[in-house]
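Chapter summary example.
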Amino acid sequence: LQQAYAVACAKGIKVRAGNILSTDTFYNEVPELWKLWAKFGVLAVEMETAELYTLAAKFKVNALSVLTVSDSLVSSVETTADEREKSFTEMMEIALEIS
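The structure predicted for these 99 residues follows.
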């Protein structure tokens, strides 16, 4: 995690490290629920990291979830296609550099 954070900072990429929520209810229509999770310090919601870490623990290997935020579930703000492409590319560059 520290290495990925350092790589992102060195590249000038806006980065945050913290808690995320892995859930199968990604598209909940109740913004108040997401605001509550945010009060607890949850930075993002996604659907795969819990399984990634479960498998890593099972097979005794290291794993790191590197995510890109594309939409806000609270404000409904969405990134443009160009913004998504740039941020996804940056995410992949970080992952490749630390692998």
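To summarize the output: Residues 2-98 form a domain with the Rossmann fold fold (CATH 3.40.50.1580).
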